[in-house]
Amino acid sequence: MTLTVDDLHVSYGGAVRALRGISLTVPDGGIVAVLGSNGAGKSTLLRAISGTLRRLGGRVDQGSITFDDQPLGRDPANIVRRGIAHVPEGRRIFGRLTVDENLRAGGLGNRDRAAKATARERINDLFPVLAERRTQRGALLSGGEQQMLAIGRALMAAPKLLLLDEPSLGLAPKIIGQIGEIVTEINRQGTAVLLIEQNATMALRVASEAHVLDVGKVSLSGAADDLAGNDDVRRLYLGHASERPTVGEPKTLSRWSE
Ligand code: ATP
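Above: inputs. Below: predicted complex with adenosine-5'-triphosphate.
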């Protein structure tokens, strides 16, 4: 099931032109990263795909989004049913609800009980810490655990494609490594991922392809390993131009436990 975004233009309030002709593809089972600085339009892209733009005053002015060669439409609940789940930025979990209740909320739109039970098992395997804290309120979890819960909640919909908006935001390097490992594992289990990140090091490690967004346009695209070696990307997003980053090395899980 391929996601295809073609010449997408999005504006807010009829004034702010947040996306100005974005085209990209997320192949079945792939991981594609979108990098870019603040305000480049990364979150807007995910909102346009998940149908959550309108409630924020945004609108698709031009272009198309298809999934499995069918137009995606704009109804968020239907888009989840089509197999696309969105984890928005800022780890928006229900702080007053327990871990269990948060996960159940994620499964509300999924009427397939067997699929929900399978999703639950998958989440327990991916995030043992959540299984240990199932009765704890979301607000009491650490930042990393809250991010895991936000991802787990999206997985309750048994998505074919996961949209992840800056999962590393505000987390310590070690936890970012764990999140990267989890994204790799989720993908290995068959779920495609569109990963939005400011942390280019993590994103280029886990993704196979990447695009750089610059004020609503794609300024660079390519294989993640190639972008990791690109001087502009290294200067702007990896924080150094001289030292060769480790992002081009094999993407194995063991890298993350170092
Ligand atoms: P960040 O990393 O800071 O979240 P981003 O790359 O995700 O940045 P967006 O949040 O998509 O960027 O914003 C793209 C542009 O759209 C920015 O100019 C931003 O100010 C504007 N924008 C985003 N959301 C809204 C909104 N709800 N109403 C009006 N303008 C918005």
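Confidence is low (pLDDT under 50) at residues 241-258.
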